[in-house]
Write a structure and sequence with these properties.
Keywords: Membrane, Sulfate transport, Transmembrane, Transmembrane helix, Transport. It is a multi-pass membrane protein. It comes from Paludisphaera mucosa. The protein is mainly alpha-helical. It contains 15 helices and no strands. The protein is globular.
Amino acid sequence: MAASIARRRPHPGLILRGGSLAYLGVMVVLPMLAMTWQAVQPGPRAFWAAVAEPYAWHALKLTFVTAFIMVLVGAVTGTATAWVLVRYEFPGRNLVNALIDLPFAVPTVVTGVMLVALYGPDSVVGAIMGKAGWKVIYDQPGIILALLFVTYPFVIRSVQPVLLGLDKAEEEAAATLGAGPWTTFLRVTLPTLWPSILTGSALSFSRALGEYGSVVMVAGNQPLLTKTAPIYVFGEIESGNRHGALAVSAVLLGSSLLILIILNALQRRGEIHDAA
C-alpha cells in the first residue's frame, strides 16, 4: 500500500523541471512565437517588403555594422582590462572591479544622457572635438560609444574567471625557452582565452542589436544616417506601421537567437573535445 502511494507521488525533480520549462515557455517562448507569427502571417513577400523598405534596410545595416565595430573594440579592450585586473596589483583595484558592472545597473537612458553631457556639442570636450572635425554625438561614432558602454562588462566577466584559473606553468615554460611577452600571450595564453572572448563578444553583439535607450539619446534619430533598427521599430509603432515594426523586430530576434544557438553549440563542442 505504502509503495503504491509512493509511486503515485510526483517526483520533486519532475515538478521542478516542469515548472522551470513552463516558466520559460510563458516568459520567453510564447512572446517570441507570437511576435514571429504576426510578422510572417501576411506572407513571405509582405515580410520581405517590410524588411527591404529603404529606411528599414538602412536601419538594420547600421545596427549590424555598429554592433560589429563595437565587438572588435570591446574584445580587445575587454581582454586587456581583465588581464590588468587579474595579473596586476594596484591601488583601487577593487573599486575598478566594482565599477565594471555599473553599466548593468545604470538605466540605458541615463547612459545616453551621460554621454551627451560629456561629448555633446554644448560640452567642453564636444566643442574641442568639433573644432578638430570629430563629431561624436548625433552621429554614428556616438552609437558605437553607447554600445561600448552598455556592453562593457561582457567580455571582461567572461575572460576574468578563465584568467584566474589559468595555470602559469606554460607561460613560465615559454618564457624560459626565450619567448617574449607578446609571443607567450599570442601562442600560449590567447588560445586558452579565445573561447571566453568569443562568448563575451557574442553576448555583446546580441545585446547591442536591441539597444535603444542609450542610442536614442546619442544618435539624434536621423533617418538614413543614425536611426538604428530598435529606434526604427519604435517609430513605426508610433506611426501605425505595426507590420513593419514586427518584421524588423523578427530579424533582430532571429539574429540574436541564431548567435546564441551557435555559441551554445561551440561551447558544447569544446566541452566534448576537452572531455575526449
